Amino acid sequence: MMFVLRSSRDDDVDAQDVLDALADETCQVILSELDEPKTAQELVEACDVSESTLYRKLERLKDASLLRSGLEIRADGHHTLRYEIDFDEVAISVDDERTLGLEISQSSPSPEDSPRKPWLGENARLRGSLSQSSD
Fold it and tell me: Taking the model in full, what pTM does it have?
């Protein structure tokens, strides 16, 4: 069966990275906790995982283009990264030719929607291959 990835963005995404991240239980917990942008420390506490585990899973989610981060500038000089879900929907389908499709719908908020939330802007390029063969 052939994996074909279609994204609402023009960038490439590795389908296997997306499927692996979505199958990872800790990644699922992290995604479920991101109802709003959060820092790594907030996620460590909310997800009850070690800091090293959290950073590995955040990297996996970013590699799969399911998560984005942005720098929050604070007046006290203690800047921090905030993490946020970077997709609206992930859909898997099979077409008439028995090709498996994985589509990620992602929206980029406009600057006027959140002018004081720099972490909401797109900051990472999606990467990977457009298709992957599998038996």
Answer: 0.71
Q: Is 7 helix (H, G, I), strand (E, B) or coil?
A: strand
Phi-psi region of 17 (alpha: psi -120 to 50; beta: other; left: phi over 0): alpha
- Show the domains of the chain with their CATH numbers: 2-133 (1.10.10.10)
**Cα separation, 71 vs 77, whole angstroms:** 12
Tell me, what amino acid is at 127?
R
Question: Which residues is 120 bridged to in the sheet?
Answer: none
Helix (H, G, I), strand (E, B) or coil at 128: coil
The continuous run of DSSP H or E covering 14 comes out as: none
- State how far the alpha carbon of 79 is from the alpha carbons of 26, 49, 60, in Å: 26, 23, 23
Which pLDDT tens digit goes with each residue over 18-31? 999 999 999 999 99
